[in-house]
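Notes to self after the call with IL:
- keep both proteins in one doc
- input above output, always
- annotate only the second one for now

Protein 1:
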Amino acid sequence: MQALRDDAELRRKQEIHEAEESKNAHIQDLMKKHEKVRSDTDMHIVKENPEASKIACITAVMKQHEEALVHRHTMHALHVDHV
């Protein structure tokens, strides 16, 4: 009787493992498809309106620069306070 339970438990674990592998493969496939659609869409946007793409890129860089300056100022102020 114990052998039957052990065999059933082993089959159950194998089925779970196979289901997880199938799920993970499906997720990877969806992620690849999503990335391709996204990159194709991004390229389409750049081709359709290169000026808007440039402006968006410049705006993003400016925002990153502002954040870096604020962070630098904060770190400098903390350093001065501790000295």
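Protein 2 (the one to annotate):
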Amino acid sequence: MVDTLKAALKRFATGCYLVWYPCLSRAESRTLPEKLAALSPKSLRAELHVRRPQADGFGMHGSGMFVINPPYVLAAQLRENSARADAAAGAGRGRAFRAGNAGFGLNGTRRKAA
């Protein structure tokens, strides 16, 4: 998928690209956002974790969206709505909503599940 997006960005560099991915304990799932971030400095990432990863590494514990060339208002909208999303996710019980630049943190901070 990363190679396909790389080719697409060469053909249409200003296009807005959205990628959904599962949050799994597998290494491929954990490294995909970093690989996508390497494609473009103009990117946002948002994840909703509904539970802590299982000790055996089985199952999906959340899902994520990666946006390359996001609409200019998206970062502000994520920032404005992150507290509501945290509350809806049940933050503090292994659940959390995280959003921001590709490395997370709309203001350079990392938000982690409690």
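Annotation: The chain is about 30% helix and 25% strand. Residues 1 and 9 are 12 Å apart (CA to CA).
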